[in-house]
User: Fold this.
Amino acid sequence: MDTTEVKERLTQSVLTVLKEEFGLEKIGSNGKLADSVSEYAGRLAELIFSELAQKEFEFFSDPEANKDVKVHEVSSDNKLNELTGAQWLWFTKSVLRTSYPSILGHDLRKSQGGNKPPQLMQELIEFFTKPGEFVLDPFAGAGGTALGAFLANRDSINIELNPASINIYHQVCEQEDIRKHEFIEGDCREILPIMKTDTFDFIATDPPYSPELTQTMSGQANQTYLRQNRKSSYITYSEDPRDFSKLEDFESYFEEMSEVGRELLRVLKPNRYMAMILRDAYQNSRYIPTSSIIADRYSKIGWILKGEKIWYATGSRIRPYGYPNAFVPNIVHQVILIFRKE
Ligand SMILES: C[S@@+](CC[C@H](N)C(=O)[O-])C[C@H]1O[C@@H](n2cnc3c(N)ncnc32)[C@H](O)[C@@H]1O
Assistant:
């Protein structure tokens, strides 16, 4: 059972009790009360799962191999973060399955294509930094990283091309009454070169995943799926020609991403990390392993690839690409590449 199933079961049980025991017959699945119940069930499910994570770690842990791990304490040798041994090792698993509840102005932020859950960014930031350290996001959107840094009690500096996205972040901060982290409006290719060398403790970012794709995975056969696919998978963030999603083809995208990668390597402090979230693509009947290509290009410009985490946010919609003729993937995961500057 995963968090989504636990959440659904909890929601259904509470709604049943409300209906049957209290006679609240009018609760529909879309009612306001039902929404609140579902939101709280989501939070409760997260809590249950973080407890289970600890227990599962203890259960699966090999006592002999892990005898020196300080399971419930932060090791005095830990120079990277403030996690206990169990939390540290749990994070190093290469697959991450989540169903975070919507928080911190999600209703505002959801108009930003590709917005990231602040809790995901918080998890990354809490592993790769200590409180008070500085995080950079050069493709900051509506502030998933900045909000994650806020949750983790770290500071962040953010670069974003689209003023509309920055405006959403500012509205969220006002609505939630939280301090605004610094946002610099502009093209990161122009702003990064004027930043000082060896400045940031961690870089967390999700750039546009590809140039805007004109063809879709569903081909021309079904216009409904054609439209749905364009809506969710291949996003254009703005009409600004400097937007990476406006680049003319994948090769230009990989070249420009490498250019940014060189500057990111310069502005990060030595021995620190970068987490970059990418999504592979499927176009013209071919799979394009964007994350592997970026991993390769970044290795060539001096980054050391340390690993990847496959992130699966449960609840992604499934569409009948290829059915019933050929295998076409429903790409429900994103790849978090972990690099280090050494
Ligand atoms: C996947 S979105 C980031 C979403 C963000 N993580 C969030 O939670 O809202 C990528 C962002 O990169 C921005 N972008 C594209 N090209 C850029 C450039 N050359 N310089 C700076 N930002 C750029 C887009 O405007 C878009 O907001």
